[in-house]
Amino acid sequence: MTGSAPHDWDVDAATAGRLQQRLAAQVRLRDETGGTATVAGVDTGFEADGTVARACIAVFSWPALTPLTRVVGRCPVTFPYIPGYLSFREMPAILEAVDRLAELPDLLLCDGQGIAHPRRLGIASHLGVWLDRPSIGVGKSRLCGRFTPPAPDKGASAPLLDGDERIGTVLRSRTRVRPLFISPGHRVSHAAAVDWVLACTGRYRLPEPIRAADRIASGRAR
DNA sequence: GCGACAG
DNA sequence: ATCTTGTCGC
Questions:
Q1: Gap from A2 CA to C4 C1', in Å?
Q2: The pLDDT of residue A1
Q3: Which bases on strand B have an atom closer than 7 Å to a protein beta carbon?
Q4: Fold designation for A13-217
Q5: Most exposed residue of A25, A29, A81, A212, measured as fewest CB within 10 angstroms of its CB?
């Protein structure tokens, strides 16, 4: 469907790191989400004792946010969990799910980081570049970067910094909840990334598309 | 050498 | 991520 080299997943951490550096150079931070008509949530869970990765992509219409379709992809796990290399563990299953989509969503909200990553290629950026699609990283906790806690009110935010470089936004998606770590994945700006997350968030901490994907990926819904 | 560390 | 009951708070 998209992508390129067949086996960029069967590598060791050192090779994966070089691959991340190379792909990070392709990330664009200009907002290109203008004509968005569909927004998808992407999340991965595990089954068979953590032996198999199960990814779900839940697609919604925009701006009505009506559920349109959802697909699931599975793949044997071949890469261990190493902070900073998450995409090499989960992307194979995500791409299996992508293959089951009739058409690519206009915008992808991924569970995990975008450029808020040591080499600026968290899973949201990796997927966005791979599919050449706008993507946003929605992390439930911090991987790297420094920040001052944002005010407790919904919408309050603080920049996530790595030295003097801005790599994301620490965002209070709901009043008095633990903040989310938002960062551009690909073809989205910092500001647009935050706007999209807030626009897709309803009564809960996580945006609806990700919640929907999460319920299925984690195996507690169908 | 000593912490930190997405899911 | 996943293993797990009750429990605290809105």
A1: 40
A2: 46
A3: 5-7
A4: archaeoglobus fulgidus dsm 4304 fold (3.30.2170)
A5: A25
Distance A205 CA to C10 C1' (A): 15
| A218 CA from C2 C1′ (Å) | 10
At A34-76, the pLDDT tens digits run: 999 999 999 999 999 999 999 999 999 999 999 999 999 999 9
In chain A, domain spans: 13-217
Asked if residues A178 and A8 have their Cβ atoms less than 8 Å apart, the reply is: no
User: CB of A60 under 7 A from strand B?
Assistant: no
**Which residues of chain A are modeled with pLDDT < 50?**
1, 6
Which residue do the tokens 């910092």 mark? A190
